[in-house]
Design brief:
The protein is an alpha/beta fold. The chain is built from 14 helices and 14 strands. The strands form 4 sheets. It has a 5-stranded mixed β-sheet with strand order 4-5-7-6-12, sandwiched between helices. A 5-stranded mixed β-sheet has the order 9-11-10-13-14, with helices on both faces. The longest helix is centred in the middle third of the chain and has 21 residues. The termini are far apart.
Length: 356
């Protein structure tokens, strides 16, 4: 398959179409508005549905309705927009409705700025909505990986009947890279007739389906939450994804970094290697579930003296890294969170100070 040069946001939109999703509801917000611009043209060509809602809140409930009817549906937004969708995301998790949410992160808190950030890590992995809800969260480091993760996200959402989030950043959305859309990631919607509210005649069933997250009986609510917890535990067993870089040999410092920041760290690692300083890296490709075992194993190597969480936030990933390391090595943080991406030289200076 030949590659085509595409902007990240446009490639994300095309990836959803190639994955068999023809329903997209959204509200514009920088730095991801090009997804909507692209799909406003492409979806009508494909016989799909594009709708710009009056707000992110309205959009989130449009998604809830389409998902409850068993349709593949997704949206894209950025930081404050995802916050406005969080109520409906919790409803969808409680009602076990699959959908895909793409967050192209910008700086915060509040309105913050429009430049790249990774400051929604805690929101995505631990606080996306009220109650005991969790999302499966994929974190791409390139436009190609964003394409693949978007295409993977729809069958994963259907597998677990749960919202899935792609956690990117402004650079992922705005950069241009060659991409291809793998045929093996094209899938058909699965099992929607078993649970969806798409009509008994459509399902050839005499049983009514009910989609709800309201359980006034405490025993029923507890039972539902136990079902959800079992699903999240299954994600932890089956869906952990990560990349190990330069970890085969000895190294004094282990970096844990994800997304665009991991690309900067990779460059720094290569340049430090030329100076005779060996540094390893674990790059989470899922941030929930977090690759705890991989980080623990890499940090436990005899040569490793310190672990560094390097991210475009004020250390939001540190607690996950610390939990994985289990106190066996000190964990340090380095990063920025104003839209100014740390350079390879800055990372090298920090890592060198740790290796001294």
């Amino acid at each position: 398959m030949s590659k085509v040069l595409m902007k990240g946001n446009e490639a994300i939109g095309e990836a959803a179409i190639r994955a068999g999703c023809l329903n997209y509801f959204a509200y514009p917000i920088t730095p991801q508005s090009e997804v909507a611009e692209y799909l406003s043209r492409r979806l009508p060509e494909m016989g799909g549905v594009f709708l710009q809602g009056e707000s992110e809140v309205a959009v989130s409930y449009m998604i809830f309705g389409a998902a409850a009817a068993g349709e593949r549906v997704f949206t894209t937004s950025s930081s404050p927009g995802i916050s406005l969708m969080s109520e409906a995301i919790s409803y969808m998790a409680g009602a076990q409705c699959p959908a895909v949410f793409v967050n192209i992160m910008r700086g915060g808190p509040g309105l913050g700025g429009i430049l790249p950030s990774q400051a929604d890590y805690l929101q995505a992995t631990k606080g996306i909505g009220h109650g005991d809800c969790r999302l499966l969260v994929l974190a791409p480091a390139s436009v190609q990986e964003a394409v693949e993760m978007v295409m993977m996200a729809f069958p994963l959402a259907e597998k677990y009947r749960n919202p899935v989030m792609i956690l990117g950043d402004g650079l992922i959305g705005q950069m241009m890279e060659p991409v291809e859309f793998p045929d093996h990631l094209k899938t058909a919607p699965s099992n929607k007739n078993e649970w969806a509210v798409n009509g008994m005649e459509t399902r050839k069933s005499d049983r009514r389906n009910l989609i709800r997250s309201l359980y006034l009986d405490p025993e029923k609510l507890n039972e539902n939450n136990l079902i959800l917890k079992a699903k999240y535990d299954r994600m932890k067993k089956e869906e952990v994804r990560f990349e190990a870089y330069n970890t085969d040999g000895d190294y004094g410092v282990l970096i844990v970094s994800y997304g665009t920041m991991s690309r900067v760290c990779r460059t720094a690692i290569d340049q430090l290697k030329e100076r005779g300083i060996e540094v390893g890296m674990i790059r989470p490709q899922t941030v929930f579930p977090f690759p705890e075992t991989a980080v623990e194993k890499a940090a436990g190597k005899k040569s490793c003296r310190v672990v560094a969480s390097i991210e475009m936030s004020m250390g939001q990933m540190v607690e996950d890294v610390e939990r994985a390391v289990k106190g066996k090595r000190p964990v340090q943080w380095y990063g920025k969170c104003g839209g100014d991406v740390p350079t390879p030289e800055e990372v090298m200076t920090f890592v060198t100070s740790l290796a001294a």
